[in-house]
Design goal:
By secondary structure, the chain is mainly α. It has 12 helices and 2 strands.
């Protein structure tokens, strides 16, 4: 059984990396998107982010160096990522359940990072359960893990309840939504059960990760531990194949769509724009009249313009 778990783990890691890369590359190869032109743009400098201004306000802006503020961007990104600020402001009842779920996942990610750090130390011959390393790689994960598992289960249950009882959410809930939440409950439930009955300091998990890194497929025979690993790695491979890939695709939503305000003054986007303008138009509405034309022709044609007068007939 242990060999199967190692194989599944390696395959899951490859699927995860491949799926993330494939989604990112597919997005980057998409046609250029329509700019939202939504202000304020977070990275705008010179204090313009406060009132929703833009570098386009400057006279001869294309001749001047662009000022971009990463600090302003972080002021927007950090509260949104860590506290789901937009949900808090626009859908407060949903925030309580979804934040419990996301906070559980954040803590679980921190727990996994510490476990990987401990596994690296163990593989390198530095016992992670001795000296100062014990606090970082044993004590903290022993507290963080159960809290993360429990919070994720609680958040999943609250979200399931909300999707089942809230009419506005129920009509937009697909079987996939319920399956995903159930999968998280199972995965975190198995992790919690394994911690309680088999691995209270997560030494077995840390050892498994160290073996995984060094390709030493050491055997283990605890079925609950094996089930925990199989479901966890299966979940890891599954996440980027679904809509849950928003955990990294939101980067493009914010930086390329919502905040994408680069100009084409130097022609950086000319080729991509020309490709889009060459696409055929199937709309036949009066305000477009695009049948048989491409977007470049539609964009340069005024459907409300008066037709040109016909030249008067001349007598021979």
């Amino acid at each position: 059984m242990s060999t199967i778990v190692y194989v599944v783990a390696y395959v899951a890691l490859l699927v995860f990396i491949g799926a993330v890369a494939r989604r990112a590359i597919k997005y980057l190869n998409n046609p250029v998107h329509l700019r939202w032109e939504l202000y304020p743009v977070a990275h705008e400098g010179k204090g313009r982010d406060v009132y929703g201004g833009s570098y386009l306000e400057d006279v001869d802006w294309w001749k001047k160096p662009r000022e971009v503020s990463m600090v302003n961007e972080l002021k927007v990104m950090v509260p949104e990522i860590l506290f789901l600020k937009a949900v808090w402001e626009h859908n407060r009842p949903l925030w309580y359940s979804t934040y419990a779920f996301h906070l559980g996942l954040y803590l679980a990610s921190a727990f996994i990072a510490l476990m990987i750090g401990g596994a690296i130390a163990q593989a390198a011959g530095a016992p992670p359960d001795a000296g100062a390393l014990a606090i970082l790689f044993v004590t903290i994960p022993s507290i963080l893990g159960p809290v993360a598992f429990s919070l994720t289960i609680l958040g999943s249950l609250l979200l399931l309840h909300r999707r089942l009882t809230n009419e506005a959410m129920r009509i937009y809930s697909s079987p996939g939504h319920f399956f995903n939440l159930a999968l998280f409950i199972i995965a975190m439930g198995l992790a919690l059960a394994s911690w309680q009955t088999h691995d209270p300091t997560f030494s077995h998990l840390r050892g498994f990760l160290a073996n995984l890194m060094t390709f030493q497929l050491a055997a283990f025979d605890n079925p609950l531990f094996a089930a925990q690993l199989l479901v966890a790695f299966g979940l890891l491979a599954y996440i980027p194949l679904t809509h849950m890939a928003h955990f990294f695709m939101k980067y493009f939503l914010y930086h390329d769509i919502r905040w994408g305000d680069e100009s084409n003054a130097q022609g950086a986007y000319s080729a991509r724009i020309a490709t889009v303008l060459s696409y055929p138009v199937a709309w036949s509405a009066a305000h477009v009249k695009g049948t048989g034309k491409n977007w470049a022709e539609v964009a340069t044609f005024n459907p409300t313009a008066e037709p040109a007068a016909k030249p008067a007939a001349t007598k021979e």
